[in-house]
Amino acid sequence: MHATISAKLINIAAAALTGAALLFGAGTGARAANKIVARVSLSQQVMEVSVDGRPTFAWKVSTGDKAHVTPTGSFKPTRMHEMWYSKKYDNAPMPHSVFFSGGYAVHATYAIKRLGQPASHGCVRLHPDNAADFYQLVETFGPTNTSIVIVK
Question: Are 98 and 104 in contact (CB under 8 A)?
Fold first, then answer.
């Protein structure tokens, strides 16, 4: 377990340092660097995160179930909360929320056994550790440098 945590922290630190080095570098290349793309596949129930075009993470997710749709398209984060409680669904906890469209967010779930299958009311749910890592990446690189792309 320690090796997994260390590897994860090294990946985040390397991504952050690479982005920072490119950001502070000279020339026009600095403008193209420092981008995060989180691609969510509804059919595969996975979120792949790339930093500056390099695949960095792939995590199981739970998206909307049959009665609740997860919107598709390309989005920018609109707001972030370390802890949010759903006003629509009985104050359900939504740790490490990165909102991208109205009330839809990427956030942690405690129902980790349901990851890998549709189970939410439309949000993109992640394992708490992965949600914390994603939140930290978005916080580090900034919402304007982050894209959340949701595909069928």
Answer: no
Q: Cα(10)–Cα(106) distance, rounded to whole angstroms?
A: 23
Q: Assign 3-state DSSP to the chain and report helix, strand, coil percentages, each to 5.
A: 30, 35, 35
Is the whole-model pTM more than 0.90? Answer: no
Cα dihedral 80, 16, 42, 151, rounded to 10, equals: 90
Closest CA to 118 of 91, 38, 109, 76: 109
What are the per-10-residue average pLDDT scores of the chain (152 residues)?
A: 49 56 48 83 98 97 97 98 94 97 97 98 98 98 98 98
DSSP β-ladder status, 79-85 and 93-101: antiparallel
